[in-house]
Design goal:
The protein has 10 helices and 13 strands. By secondary structure, it is of the alpha/beta class.
């Protein structure tokens, strides 16, 4: 094993604040209760009111409940540990996936959103591959290498799942930058075929995308495009109940530029696809990758995340069961 314990949904750890809050409320209640009883001024009345009550049981039950809350919060945050294992020598091609994470990818003209649909597509595509080295690029107004070519599929899927527009402050859809970066990430020479899969709504704001596509094709890379969104388009969400607006206050509309995506694929020697035709797109891209020349890929250590949520969920459930079985009152007046 290597690395530290990580959480798949770290934001859910904020639920742990419920535990000290519960303790504070119980402490305030206990102090109020003690003061109220002392005001009665009659030990006989106090004993009659507290007949069978056990302070020890009260705190034990609430301690068990608080512990179970903490363990459940940790469990649903999905604690994971990174493990590494030796890779196997395989034959495969080199594939780069360039994912558009610009604000327009938040549009919901495809469900649940363009970006979420693209993430699901990448997961399906990667799970159907074997032996290929895969790398990942995120782009918006600029492009950044997220993961170099590797057979570490688990890490690529983790990066993809967490992708969001906030990763890149320079917004827009710079397709040219993504293609240019891909050309630099591919290793020169070698026997392996190389393919770039560009996933975007195609709202390109740069004029040199076609030139970059020609250049990468001359370097021996096949460019496939996957258009996300509809030609009709829609607005771009900005929070829960608002949409993005331009400087004049009008709602910004976004639509898929399938014409540009098709032109890029044609110049790039590949094929153009629509994400809405997911089954066909998956099948044909996988087939295209399988047709690429293969080379022997050296054995490399691969990373895999193993979940340990059950280590926390099981004791949490046991604590809840014990807490429910434990009575507030003593079963007999003689029990200490």
């Amino acid at each position: 094993m290597t690395g530290f314990l990580q959480f798949d949904s770290p934001n859910l750890l904020h639920l742990l604040w419920a535990v000290p809050l519960q303790g504070l409320v119980l402490y305030i209640y206990w102090r109020w209760r003690q003061r109220t009883l002392r005001r009665l001024g009659s030990q006989a009345l106090e004993k009659r009111l507290l007949q069978g009550f056990s302070g020890r049981r009260f705190w034990t039950k609430n301690l068990l409940f608080g512990a179970s809350l903490a363990l459940i919060a940790i469990a649903i945050s999905n604690p994971m540990h990174l493990t590494k294992r030796p890779g196997e020598v395989q034959k495969g091609a080199d594939v780069l996936i360039a994912l558009d994470i610009s604000n327009s990818m938040l549009a919901k003209d495809v469900t649940p959103s363009r970006l979420d649909r693209a993430k699901a597509f990448i997961r399906e595509l990667v799970e159907g591959l074997k032996g290929e080295r895969i790398g990942l690029i995120f782009f918006a107004g600029d492009a950044y290498p997220q993961m170099p070519l590797s057979n570490d599929y688990e890490s690529l899927l983790l990066f993809t799942r967490n992708a969001r527009p906030e990763y890149i402050t320079d917004q827009g859809t710079n397709v040219a930058a993504a293609i240019d970066l891909a050309g630099r990430m591919f290793e020169s020479g070698g026997e392996a075929g190389r393919a770039l899969i560009l996933i975007s709504d195609g709202e390109n704001h740069q004029e040199n995308a076609m030139q970059r596509a020609r250049e990468i094709t001359r370097a021996g890379v096949v460019l496939h495009t996957v258009a996300v969104g509809t030609a009709k388009g829609t607005t771009i969400p900005a929070g829960r109940n608002s949409v993005r607006k331009d400087f004049s206050g009008k709602a910004v509309r976004t639509s898929a530029n399938e014409s540009l995506m098709a032109s890029l694929a044609r110049v790039g020697g590949g094929s153009a696809y629509r994400l809405q035709e997911e089954a066909r797109t998956l099948a044909e891209i996988r087939a295209a990758i399988q047709r690429l020349p293969k080379s022997t890929i050296e054995a490399r250590t691969t990373a895999q995340y193993i979940s340990y949520y059950q280590w926390f969920l099981i004791p949490a459930l046991l604590f809840l069961i014990i807490e429910q079985l434990l009575w507030w009152k003593k079963p007999s007046a003689t029990e200490g």
